[in-house]
Specification:
alpha/beta, Rossmann fold, 2 domains, six-stranded mixed sheet, 12 strands, 38% helix, globular, binds NADPH dihydro-nicotinamide-adenine-dinucleotide phosphate
């Protein structure tokens, strides 16, 4: 069984380690999962070559998620809603089924720490990751969902997709308190905190940064200073989206806990 994670760059990807660990849980001896560096202008040809070589599935990462969405002839509902594909399942006839497991990964990780029903959720960012998690978050029945973004128009556009209960805001115009605040911007990658008021963190607020790495992210440092009760990085989301992709391909539910613990130590 051949699987790949396709991106550019790709050397940093932890996906091979994660999926090999999942496969080991089920003793899948013929499972192979490697990194694929696709040329920036040659994603479709790269995928076609992988299909011709007997590939069964692929994870898609930066910068190809939107291109993968356009390439797949079949889409799951959640991939269609996200307009981005992070998981491709290759059918026996070579048909590409596009899926998006980022939202399921985030929600499963959040639910390990808190419930989302009747919570006031704030989603910071309106890029691909925010699009992917919007519907899965709404499916948990929050009291309200607000999207704030540096470019307000993108937040407004995304809010329209979620329906009437979604509000859009600029960072500095945010008012009131939130129980769950999710950073889906790439600001932390650039080492930047966000220009949001410190008053938005409710007393028992859970702050979540999709980014992960050694030490605290700038957003989580900001949240902690503002009094957030729980500050969680995106490593669990990474494992959650991988476990969901593994399930899409194999029908097997991997246990993320031992893999998460091992990776946390290795960060
Ligand atoms: P995109 O490039 O699609 O979107 C980037 C978002 O970040 C936009 O909303 C953009 O705002 C905002 N942004 C960028 N720079 C800044 C800044 N300096 N200040 C404020 N806002 C900023 O990226 P993705 O949505 O694909 O990824 C977002 C983050 O999520 C990344 O850090 C990525 O690593 C992480 N991620 C983690 C996953 C996991 O499994 N843990 C899975 C997927 C993503 P604007 O619209 O104004 O440009």
């Amino acid at each position: 069984m051949k699987y790949l994670v396709i991106g550019h760059p790709i050397a940093h990807s932890k996906s091979p380690q994660i999926h090999q660990a999942f496969a080991a849980q089920f003793k899948l001896a013929d499972f192979s999962y490697e990194r694929g560096l696709a040329p920036l202008e040659g994603f479709a040809d790269f995928v076609a070559d992988f299909v011709a070589r007997g590939g069964r599935g692929a994870n898609i990462t930066v910068p190809f998620k939107e291109e993968a969405f356009r390439l797949c002839s079949e889409l799951t509902e959640r991939a269609a809603a996200a307009e981005a594909v992070n998981t491709i399942k290759i059918g026996a006839n070579g048909v590409l089924l596009g899926d998006n497991t980022d939202g399921a990964g985030l929600v499963s990780d959040l639910l390990r720490h808190t419930s989302l029903a009747n919570k006031r959720i704030l989603l910071l960012g309106a890029g691909g990751a925010a699009r992917g998690v919007l519907l899965p978050l709404l499916a948990e029945g929050p009291l309200s969902l607000t999207i704030a973004n540096r470019t307000l128009a993108r937040a407004e556009q995304l809010a329209l997709r979620g329906g009437i209960m979604i509000k859009a805001s600029a960072f500095d115009a945010l008012a009131g308190e939130f129980d769950v605040i999710i950073n889906a911007t790439s600001a932390s990658l650039a080492g930047l905190a966000l220009p949001v008021p410190a008053t938005i963190f409710a007393e028992k607020c859970l702050a979540y940064d999709m980014m992960y790495g050694k030490g605290e992210t700038p957003f989580l440092a900001q949240a902690q200073q503002a009094g957030a009760a729980q500050c969680i990085d995106g490593l669990g989301m990474l494992l959650g989206q991988a476990a969901e992709a593994f399930y899409v391909w194999t029908g097997l539910r991997a246990d993320i806990e031992p893999v998460l613990a091992e990776m946390r130590v290795a960060l």
